[in-house]
C-alpha cells in the first residue's frame, strides 16, 4: 500500500498538523522514541497509524529495518509462519527455511497493524516474545532472540475485546506500555488546509484551490479520514481541467455530500464484518431473516416490507434448507472416510461442506455442523501432514472459535485434545500440561464420558514425558482407563485412544519396575493390533505401542516382527510418522542383532525423514537412546557420546525426563568405552541419583551394576556393597528383571 503521507526528496518527514491534538501527539511521540518498550497506536481507519509508527521508528531506530505485518490481511493458518518463520520440513510444502517478520525486523521495528485481528491462539506466543525476547520458528527446536521493538496499531476497542475474552488481557497490557491515540480528521479540522497543501505538492502537475474551494473542502465531512482526503485530492489532480480549481469545478469532481454519509459508511463497515466470504449473500439473508421476524413469520408481509415478491422469500428459505441438507451429507461422508482411516479422501467432502455452509448465513444450529467440519479437517490434516501441521492447527482453532462464540463448553473441550497433541509433540510440555489440566476442568464442568477419557489420557501421557511415571499411572487409574476396554471410549479424535492408554500404561509400568504389568500391556496391544484389521490407522497405533514396549522390555523376537509390520503397514497407507517409528524400532532390532551400521542408519533416517518432519520432536530422547546403544555396540563410542550430549541438552531445555536416566546411563557407558573412568563414574553416580529421585527402576539397576563394576575394577570394592544395597532398597525381592538378579547374586557373593 502507498504510504498515507509521502514526501519529496529534502522535504521534512512527519505528519502535517498544527492542531493542539496533533502537537500534543508529536510531543509525546518524541518522548516515547527515547524508550524501546512496546507502543500501541489507536485511531480510526484511514487516520495514518502506520505513518505514526514509521515516524516513531525514524526517531528511535534510524537506519534499522522497519517491518510491517497486517494481522487482518493474512489467513490465520499462514500468519504464524509469517510472524515466526519456519524450518525446512515444518509442514507440507516447507521445502526450505523461511525467515519470519520477527527475524527480519532484527534490532529495528516490527509494526503489527490491526493487532485486534490477531487470532487468540497466536496471542500467547506473541506475549512470550514480549516477555522473554525469545521465539521459536515453526518446526524448529532452536530458540531465537528478538531485540527489536514491537509497535502495534488498531482501530478497534481492545478493552472491549478483552472484556469479551476475544483479546488476552495480559497481552493488552504488554503492548500498551505507551499508548498513542491518533484522532480522526473531523476532530482536527484545523489540520485540513495543511494536509491539502501537502497532498497538492505530491501531484504530478501543479494543483491549487481558490478560497471558496478550499473552504468547501474544510467544511466537508471526511468519514474515511486522511485516506479519503488524499484519494479525493489525487482524483481532482487527475481530472481537473486547470491547475487552479474553483468551487464550481470542485463540486462537479466531488461526490455530492450526503447528510447520512457517516452513517452509511458505518453501516457498510458493519456489513463487511459479517462472517463468510460472500458478504452480499450474507446481507440478503440478514434482511430476509429480520423481515420475517418483524412480520412474525408471515412471508407475504415480509416480502412487502422488503419490496420483493413472496416467491423470492420462499425461494431463499428453500435454498437455505437444501444447502443445510447438502452440508449434512458432506459431513457424514467425511466422517465415514475418517472412520476407515482414509484421511486424504475425507478432505474433499469436508472442505466442500464448509464451502456450502458459508452460503448459509447464521442458520439455526448450523454452527454445530461447521464446528464438526473444522474439527474433522483438523484430524485429517494432522494425520496427513503430521502433528505440527499448520493447516490442522488452523482448523482446530476455527472450530474452537465457533464453540467459544456459542459458549459451548463441551465442544470447546473436544477440540482441546487436538491442540494438546500439537503442544505435546512439539515438546511444549509446560503448555501441554496446562492444556491437559484445563481439559480435566472442562470435562468436570461439561460432563460426558468422552471428555473424561480424553482429558485423563492427555494428562497421563504428558506426565509420562515429564518423568512422573507414578502419577501418570495413577492418572490412568483415576480415569478408569486401566479397566477392560469400555464401549464408550471415543473414536472421534481419529486416534485409537485405547491403544494409546495401553501403550503408556505399559511404558510407565516398565519405568516403575512393574514388569509383569508392562508385559500384560504388550500382550493386550498385540491382541488389539490383530483385531484392528479393518482400521489400518488404529492398527498402526497398536503396533507402535507393542513394538515400543517390546524394545524396552528386551523382547527381541517380538520386536523384529512388530517393527517390520508397523513399517510396512504405515508405508502402504502413507502414515509417514508411524512409518518413521517403525524404522527406528526395526533399526534398533537390526543393531542389537549385529547389523550395527544398517541399524544405526535406519534409526537416523526414520527419525529425521519421517518422525521429525511430521512434528515428532517428542521422540528425540527415545531415538537417541536406542541409536546410541547401536553406535556403542558397533564400537563408535565417540559418536554415541556426541549424540547423547545433544539429546540431554534438548531434554533439559524442555523438561523432558521420560528417558533422561537412560541417556545419562548411556553417556556413562560411552565414557567407560573411551577410557575416561573418572568422568564415567561421575556420570553414573548422577544417573543413579536421578533414577532414585524419579523412581526409575531399570536405569537405577543398570547404573548400579555399571558403577559397581567400575569401583571393583579400580580396587574400591568396599563401596560396591553400599551402591548395590542402595539400588535394591524398597524393591520387590523377587523382582523379575535381569540386572536385579545380578545385583542380588553380587550381594550374596560379597556377604559370603
From TrEMBL:
Domain Sigma-54 factor interaction: 15-238
Top-level taxon of the source organism: Bacteria
Annotated GO MF terms: ATP binding; sequence-specific DNA binding
SMART domains for the chain: AAA
Pfam families named among the record's database cross-references: AAA_lid_14 (PF25601), HTH_8 (PF02954), Sigma54_activat (PF00158)
Coiled-coil segments: none
GO biological process, one term: regulation of DNA-templated transcription
Keywords: ATP-binding, Nucleotide-binding, Transcription, Transcription regulation
PANTHER family xref list: TRANSCRIPTIONAL REGULATORY PROTEIN (PTHR32071)
Protein name: Sigma-54 specific transcriptional regulator
Taxonomic source organism: Pseudomonas inefficax
